[in-house]
Fold:
Amino acid sequence: MKIFRVLVMLAFVLGGIALLCAPSHAQGPKSFTPTRFTVVDQGTASKPDVILIPGLSSSRAVWDAEAKLLAPNYRLHLVQVDGFAGAPSGPNMSGPMLGPIVEELHSYIVAGKIHPVVIGHSLGGLLTLMLADKYPGDVAKIVIVDALPYYAVLVDPTATVANIKPQADAMGKQILAMPAAQFNMMAPLMAAQMVKNPEAQKLVAASSGTTDRAVMVNAMVEDLQTDLRGDVVTIKTPALMLYAIDASLQQPDPVKYEALVKDSYKSMPNVKLVRIDDSRHFIMYDQPEKFDAAVESFLK
Structure:
């Protein structure tokens, strides 16, 4: 049961297990072709640009409902990270992953001559922070959905980049060594920890086997060693941070989690924190109306 508790926590903090990819045609600026992700270009071409990035092992399908609401007023760029949710793995299987994805997001933005709002869930939220930190001129606004500048503090409150590495490597090896049947058997249990909506739970659980586990572990280990706590003070981009609170959930403890969110973002100058109650990690599934209202108000 120990490895299950670890997987539940990692699934929560890094964005859950795989979601089914919606059939679509990837598009993007003709002068740049990403090697780490694909992008579907939707919405109204003449409207302001919005890039949406899903979390660990999730597909762009997590944004389907929100995309329908935003499409009349925005041009949407729906990202799918390679290796997640059935997408070909490519170079994400080994070596640095998050930094190269940020570099390709920057190249995508420059090639397309856009100045987008970027919305990221969980791991996608961390990527959004990394992009705004390194390339502040790329983004008009950012929306961080239930993500922290340093995820490892949810695993260990005393974590540092140095002391978390052996633990992260060990967890990665355990996950890789786990038989597929055992890993897949945990999927419904993990899904129930991350989303309350019964239909969304089924979707998350049914899709868990479609992510390349090597890519998932590669992203997870790097994520646990990416600490932006000292960087957020320099991120001056207007930001909205949505965080989920479910009083019935024991992991993470709602009171401690809220305190951690506030402490993590207290030095970020232009961030607005919005608490979404009666929701677990996938706010867009558990509280879609509140989610959309907060996002649309911020974008306007």
The chain has a mean pLDDT of 89. The chain has 13 helices and seven strands.
